[in-house]
Each structure stands twice: as structure tokens, then as C-alpha cells.
Task: structure prediction
Amino acid sequence: MLAARPSLEELPNSPYARELTRGVAQLRFAEPLETEFRLAHLGRARLRVRTWFTWACFLAVTFAGQQLWRAGIAHPLSIAKLAHVPCAFVLLWLAWSRRYLRSYLAVAQVLVPILSALIASFIAIDYAAGHEDEFAAEALHLVALFFFTGLLFRHAVVAAAITIVSFQITAIAAGLATPGLVECFVSMSLTSMIGAIVCRDSEQSHRRNFLEGALIGDLVARDGLSGLMNRRAFDEHLARVWQHALRDQRSIAVLMIDIDHFKRYNDEFGHQAGDEALRRVAQTVQEFTQRPLDLAARYGGEEFVAILYDLALPHVQDIAGRLRERVQSLVIRPPDAEPRLKPDVTISVGVAFVTPTLGRTPAGVVQLADEALYEAKAGGRNCIVVSATAAYRGLVTGTFNSGRRKRKA
Result:
């Protein structure tokens, strides 16, 4: 029995859901999803790429050696055949190196068309000289462009077009008669068209499967009520950006956000009204965390948390202030609320602003934000408290400030 696909309506904040809704016909995702997909594509194609360029290098060396033996190094064709050997070896090296995922596609978009144009020219010269049986190698080469070089559809089409043009120009220069030119052009065009159709269909399928698989993972990582990431996803993301910030000496801000008097709100208006208030506040928090390394999550109960990466302290304070004002302006009122009541929702925000250092952990910045939140609630709620460098230096991770705990109570 097939598993049900995740509902897009369940994940309004998921980039994977947005891309599925938009469709995959354009064969291009918004960043950073496009980069994520390309990494998955390269991982899937790695064996094919390695196999193809291993053979390509072997053949390149073999044919270059034969040409040198026949005509010597001064012959123009010998120079051309020697020139295509380094291209093949660079691509082979990348396919087997640790830089494959990071660098291969960018390099292949340039070198594969060059290598293909050179190979097409060599085959065109042989074909014009009467070795018509070698044209089968060109058909195989065109098929390989779409399925064995690791290129995505658009780049494979460009490489195939360059290959066909290079073959035709070289064949004309070599004196191939018009009927032969037409026959080769039609044959190469049909081969490329078939390869392109299958390649496009395959890439569409892979892109759709990538989004649906990631969407299932997103569903697991999100809170069902608010649509934000859950506590576990927050912890994992904070650990990742902590390492980024430690390496690049960037700042991290963690905002702990608590809905004021939420229990009283629930008791007065019921849990359905409380759930709607949670969803509205969650949507507002999400609006302020749209950059790639930012994150909004439900921390538990009526508490939310946000990560803001690499922003100056004044900017973080401005975001926290606008977030508090936006929530207060929502005027979240149940439909049957009596006019005399004031069920408007407000939030308290504790902000921790730090630059990670060796010897400190992500748990420390969370604790610092939590202590700032307790101070904000003890100070009357519907306000913001910021703890930055000085407070972070004096923080003992795991030892909560008991004075603030008492003031909250």
C-alpha cells in the first residue's frame, strides 16, 4: 500500500511545499533549494560521472598517442588531440575528489562543452576522410552528454548544440559533401532531441521526488499546530549555524518569545481560541525569519524562538521591537468575545546577542535568551530585554539565574 503524500496545506511555511505548488516544469528552484537539489543530483550521478570520464580519459590518451605516432607533435591535429586530454583529466579528477559536490558542476558547465566540441571535430575529420563507421561514436557521445556527464538538462542541451555546430563546421572545413552534412546533421539532431526529451522528463521526476521526500522530512520537523519548526529542528539548526558563526566570526541572536497571560486567555475564551492565537503569533514570528540561515520554531507551549544570523545588535533590537508591536496590533479576538473584555494578545521577548567563541556552546545562548525573557516578564510583560556580550561573559551555562526565576513567579 502506497504511503499518502503530505498535504501542502499542512506546511504553509515550507519552501518545499511552495516549490511543489509552483511546479517543476521550469527546472529551477529558488535558492537555497536549487543548491540543495544540485547536491542531491550530483550524489546520485557520481558513479555514472566517474565511469564515463574514466573511459573518456583512457580513450583521450589512446587517440592522442596514436595521432602523435602517425603525424608527430607539430601536426595541428596532434596539438588539438593533446589539448583535449587535460580537459578530460580535470573532470575525472573532480569526479573522484572531495571537491566533487562543491565544484564539479560549475567546472563541467565550461569544460564539457569544450571537450565535446573537440571530440566532435576529431570525428568529423575522420568521417570526411571516409571513416564513416566512426560516426557511431558521435551518437554515443551525444547520449552521454545527457546521461553520463552529470549535467542538468539546460546545460546538457547547450553542450549538445555546441557539439553539433562544431561537427558541422569541421566537416565543412574538411570538405564533406552536402548530402553527408545533411545526413549527419539530421542524425545528430534526432539523437540529441531524444536524449533531451528523456533527460528533461527524468529531471522533472527527480525534482518532484526531491521535493516530496524533503517535504516528508519537513513534516516531521515541524510543529503541527503552528506550522513552525519544532524544538528538535531548532536545536539541530542552532548547532549548525553556531559552527558557521564560530568559523566566520559572525553574530547569532536568539529571541525567546512568550505570549503574555496565555493560560488566562485559554481559560477565558477556550482552547480553540487559544490555538488560533498561537497560529497567528507563529505566522507573525515567521515573517521576521525569512533569510536562509534564520529560523522560527515553537519552543513549547506558548513559547516561540527565533534565530537571526549575522545581524548588528541595533538591527536585532529593531526586529524584536517591530515583532512585539506587530503582535500587539493583531488584535486577536474570538468572534464571540464581549466588548467589555480585552483579549488582545501581547508578547514578551528575551534577546540573546552573542558572537560564538571556543569553549562556549549553543546551550549558553539559549539560556541567556531564556533569562532575558524571564526578566522581561518580571518587568511587566509586553516588553523586550536584551542580553549581549557582558551578560554572556558572566553566564554559567546550566546555572539559571535564580533571582530572575523568583521575579517571574
